[in-house]
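dumping this here so i dont lose it
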């Protein structure tokens, strides 16, 4: 049989009629194609080097492609476009070696704070890998050392509807591991659907030190995050998972969690339906439905800013430092067949507040925190309002 030409191989890899250029290895095989036109959605593009990774990710013609990384360490380069961040094209996915998340490492050590500014004005910061354009997937990778940005992985790239799948990742040594967020008025009303499964999120202890954060913030009015988590291990972070709405109105986060483990953090899972400082946060909702979760030995001394305590689970309706700025927020958590173990000493299994102030001034009114537990009897500390209201409006309930 006649050997297929390099040109023919290039055409097949591109998924288009022709390609203008290619990177060809010494043995004549295709390394990375440069297409004349957009690749077909789902086309697998093999990427063996950092240089070829940037060539593909920064080329809109690869929108919809699956970027298949060869084993190795890919050190992000601050001299590249977008400050060296990986800003995936619309519909683009990123994948390492199936079966071994340690084979492919994305290392953000070289990115300084300036490389996390998404525009010339310098407003806001973001992550080393940036998602949010349509339907995208990131899997079978290790992502590490994004200590100078918001996170290793951020979902704030676009204001439109977003559907993301993050699976079989190891995310370690960052300020935050994964930042699932809609932020700013441009993202008002945005709907984001996210699945996170079989990930190890560990040792994220710089600054806020959150393994995963889910957040609607800064006037992202009416934004919605619908998340499904399963079989994740969040360990040795300051906070394993934080879920909340900050300085926004009528925003919603709904999480369904199955068999997730929160271990050896300072706070395993912290949630606050409405967080306000100088800007009001009102009429927001957080709903968590958890089946078979494990909260194990969350007693770390590395407390996170804003959480001066330990807990397996922390639940707050309204939280704030300004008088009366966090009002009418609701956090509702249901837990079926959990395991609570080792959350002892200064820590407890569950802490819950209807409203909690970080300044000694009542945070707001008509906030609700409710927790229902079936299949266990956790140790609980619950407070309707801290400090106490003159006329009670904030409500806390933990059953049993």
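and the seq i came up w/
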């Amino acid at each position: 049989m006649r050997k297929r030409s390099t040109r023919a191989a290039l055409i097949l890899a591109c998924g288009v009629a022709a390609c203008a250029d290619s990177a060809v290895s010494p043995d004549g095989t295709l390394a990375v194609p440069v297409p004349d036109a957009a690749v077909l959605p789902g086309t697998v593009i093999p990427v063996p080097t950092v240089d070829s990774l940037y060539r593909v990710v920064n080329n809109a013609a690869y929108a919809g492609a699956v970027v298949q990384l060869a084993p190795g360490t890919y050190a992000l380069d601050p001299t590249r476009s977008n400050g060296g961040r990986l800003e995936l094209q619309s519909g683009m996915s990123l994948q390492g070696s199936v079966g071994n998340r340690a084979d492919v490492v994305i290392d953000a050590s070289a990115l300084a704070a300036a490389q996390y500014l998404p525009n010339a004005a310098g407003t806001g910061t973001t992550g080393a890998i940036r998602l949010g354009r349509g339907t995208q997937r990131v899997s079978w990778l290790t992502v590490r050392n994004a200590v100078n940005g918001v996170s290793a992985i951020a979902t704030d790239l676009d204001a439109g509807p977003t559907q993301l799948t993050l699976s079989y990742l190891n995310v370690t040594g960052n300020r935050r591991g994964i930042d699932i967020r809609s932020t700013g008025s441009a993202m008002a009303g945005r709907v984001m659907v996210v699945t996170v499964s079989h990930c190890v999120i560990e040792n994220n202890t710089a600054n806020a030190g959150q393994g995963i954060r889910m957040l609607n913030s800064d006037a992202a009015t009416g934004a919605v995050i619908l998340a499904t988590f399963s079989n994740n291990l969040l360990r040795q972070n300051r906070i394993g998972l934080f879920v909340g709405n900050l300085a926004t109105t009528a925003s919603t986060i709904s999480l369904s969690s199955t068999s997730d483990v929160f271990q050896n953090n300072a706070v395993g899972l912290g949630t606050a339906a409405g967080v306000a400082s100088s800007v009001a946060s009102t009429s927001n909702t957080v709903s968590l439905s958890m089946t078979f979760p494990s909260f194990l030995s969350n007693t770390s001394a590395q407390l996170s800013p804003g959480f001066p305590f330990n807990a397996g689970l922390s639940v707050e309706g309204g939280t704030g430092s300004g008088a009366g700025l966090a009002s009418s927020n609701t956090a509702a958590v249901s837990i079926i067949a959990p395991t609570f173990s080792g959350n002892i000493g200064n820590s407890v299994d569950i802490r819950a507040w209807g409203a909690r102030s970080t300044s000694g001034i009542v945070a707001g009114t008509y906030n609700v925190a409710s927790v229902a537990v079936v299949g266990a009897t956790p140790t609980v500390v619950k407070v309707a309002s801290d400090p106490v209201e003159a006329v009670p409006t904030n409500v806390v309930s933990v059953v049993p």
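Residues 132 and 156 are 6 Å apart (CA to CA).
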